[in-house]
Amino acid sequence: MKTSIIGYPRVGSLRELKFASEKYFKGEITIHELQQTATGLRASHWKRQQENSIDFIPSNDFSFYDGLLDTACLFNIIPERYQALKLSPLETYFAMARGYQGEQGDVKALAMKKWFNTNYHYMVPEVDDSTSIQLVGTKLFDEFLEAKQLNITTKPVLIGAFTLLKLAKYTGAKQARDFIQETAEAYVNVLTKLNDLGANWIQLDEPALVTDLTKEDLVLFSDLYARILSAKGSIKVIAQTYFGDVRDCYQELQALPFDGIGIDFVEGKQSLELVRQIGFSNDKVLFAGVVNGKNIWRNKYTNTISLVQELKGHANHLVLSSSCSLLHVPYSLQHETKLSEENKHYFAFAEEKLREFAELKAILTDADPYSADLYLRNEELFNGVRFKGNETVQTRTATLTDADFTRLPAFAEREALQNAKFKLPPLPTTTIGSFPQTAEVRANRFAFKKGSISEEQYKQFNFDKIAECIAIQEEIGLDVLVHGEYERNDMVEYFGECLDGFIFTENAWVQSYGTRCVKPPIVWGDISRSRPMTVEYSAYAKSLTNKPVKGMLTGPVTILNWSFPREDISLQDSAIQIALAIRDEVLDLEANHIEIIQIDEAALREKLPLRQSDWQAEYLSWAIPAFRLVHSGVQADTQIHTHMCYSQFSDIIREIDDMDADVITFEASRSDLAIIDAINACGFQTEVGPGVYDIHSPRIPSVDELKQGLFRMLDKIEVAKLWVNPDCGLKTRGVTETWASLRHLVQAAKEVRETL
User: Fold this and answer.
1) What is the CATH number of domain 1-52+241-386?
2) Structure confidence at residue 670 (pLDDT)
3) Residue extents of the structural domains in the chain
4) pLDDT tens digits for 370-419?
5) SS3 assignment, position 434
6) Does the pLDDT of residue 671 top 70, yes or no?
7) What CATH architecture does domain 414-755 belong to?
8) Which residues 6+ apart lie within 8 Å of 182 measured at CB?
């Protein structure tokens, strides 16, 4: 029995790559020093997998920013505007990822989207009619040789040709089919080079195969790989899928001359049934994704052993694999000093999952797996009682009625009441909520957690920052203000810390995009709110100004989707529990005269099934009502906002309108305002604020640039419906660039108003 990992976390156990990259961006270290950090991390990751007897160890799963961006650069998919900067290859790479503003020019970053149904973000490759897709990069080969020098033969990993062409953005007349020949040739050249270097296997990641596929998609996939595989030489090729099943292309995968097929048996609802009904090719290796690559709970060996034993009856050659890359879980439990041993027994982060593979390998080679000591210890863990439920929470959720999910009166009547109450100007300006978390802000929070300052000192610092933030917003001229969120470490973690039922880690960081890492809370038990979470700071901010101040909350679906959920109850049950807790906070804010309340649902789409036929029954039927439950009890003239970012929302725009918020702000600056066409097509009733500039880039937009964006919006959105705001929170930005950008935003709005 052999084992395989699809991919491994990149940032390091203590986020070494994040900190080195940010120092490089600031000019504090050289490119050589950055590369040294990367080399050390790769070596430690490979050795750790080798120590746990992983047979198929991946290389090229490491990235400075994003794997799909790496693939684009490998194949010369670099738009002319970045090439024109005449930067070094790595600087060009970072310009594509982060944007560039300097002596060489001023360009925005590539578009950024969510990676399928995860909280990881990828950079969207941009292909125009002049793009020449060809092998030009060396990173894939360099890292294979780097591992080889350590006496580790790896399995190079690369985004597959079909997924690359499906996720790319085409800016000219040519579409994916027009690039089949040159794309296939580029991949053939990769295989040829790896053959020359002595590689045994290559893993081509094709997660796009688990989505809804058209006949045209199947032709594209088959045409690409018929060409690629006909010239693969001696190297063996794995078609690796994950995040779902391959029901639309299972037979095509079997028919093509792949040497291995990776199938997800965790999220793939029909994966086992496909193997049962159709069988599996005798001449291929089944890389069976049986260890959950997304969640952090220990593997229940009895279920995995049973599954593997059945699969062995259908596949002649079987390899145990993770269900997806371990990129989506934290690195290790080794730095968790505050979690109880009882808690830690139930968790398996990336490093612990390696040990699970080693244990499963040992158990499955035992003559009687069910009597093996490793199996019995695992079974004992799962036979124990983990926690005691909260009867009050369970009773409250059980007694909800339809009326609890419906806000009255209807939107049109509320809109008129709110317009009369707030008397905001056309194109009202606001921000999404958070302001820069400077080193001083983080130090204050750390000092309080460490116990080196009192609660009174901690709060006074935050009050001072709020007063400063309100004063600057008023001076700039924003219309609807925020308190800045200086007390919050993260938009989800903060609320998890204030709610009962969550537990927290010290260093369980997960990469979200680039250098941005998050530390998801863990849902341990039933969720409830025992005290107000945001009222004190919001009420203080409100006392400092005559302008409206938004209360800032994170919605139940985002809190759940950006946490590690329980596996013993449904996502729906957890979402409703969280919704009731946030509802209590909403009503407390309203009682304290906070008359505009923003309930962010940035991750609404994240758990949306990848197949449209499953959307309503498996997700939207409870995700949308969970949001409505949060705000259905407020007064008609209390204005409810929500925010969504970096996902494709056009195809669920009607459901978003059904959330029945009063104002919705969207990320739009990196997506060419495509969301607006969807809004118009469905008769969207909610007021909207498509983001006018990209906060994930350090560049400062000019007033003219912002005005042009607003005029484009006004061509499609009536002025009475349009808000003006950045596309996301400003937490990760620097102070200077933030205030400069907001001054430009307000000035642009004022100048556009004058033309109306």
Assistant:
1) 3.20.20.210
2) 64
3) 1-52+241-386, 56-199, 414-755
4) 999 999 999 999 998 887 789 999 999 999 999 999 999 999 999 999 99
5) strand
6) no
7) Alpha-Beta Barrel (3.20)
8) 132, 133, 134
To the question of domain 56-199 being in CATH 3.20.20.210, the answer is yes
Residue 631 confidence class, pLDDT cut points 50, 70, 90? very high
Which uninterrupted H or E stretch holds 449?
helix 439-450
Residues with Cβ within 8 Å of residue 241, at least 6 apart in sequence: 206, 207, 209, 210, 261, 262, 263, 264
Strand-strand pairing, 317-322 and 2-4 = parallel
How many other CB atoms are there within 10 angstroms of residue 569's CB atom? 14
Answer yes or no: are the C-beta atoms of 346 and 298 closer than 8 Å: yes
Q: Report cis status (omega within 30 of 0) of the bond before 409.
A: yes
Neighbouring residues of 414: CB distance < 8 A, sequence distance ≥ 6: 407, 636, 637, 662
Element (H, E) at 623: helix 621-631
In this prediction, residues 181-202 reach a mean pLDDT of 98
As a residue count, the chain comes to 756
User: For 525-542, b where at least 16 C-beta lie within 10 A, e where not — what string?
Assistant: bbbbbeebbbbebbbbbb
What is this structure's pTM?
Answer: 0.89
SS3 559: helix
Identity of the amino acid at 482 = V
Residue in the structure block whose two tokens are 């607006």: 676
| 590 half-sphere exposure, CB direction, 13 A CA radius | 19
- pLDDT tens-place string over residues 478-506: 999 999 999 998 888 899 999 999 999 99
Asked if the domains at 56-199 and 414-755 fall in one CATH topology, the answer is yes
Average pLDDT over residues 631-655: 88
Q: Which positions are annotated as active-site residues?
A: 696
Closest by CA to 529, choosing from 560, 556, 554, 501, is: 501
Backbone angles phi, psi at 99, to 5 degrees: 85, 165
Find where tokens 């642009």 sit. 748
701 has which bridge partners? none
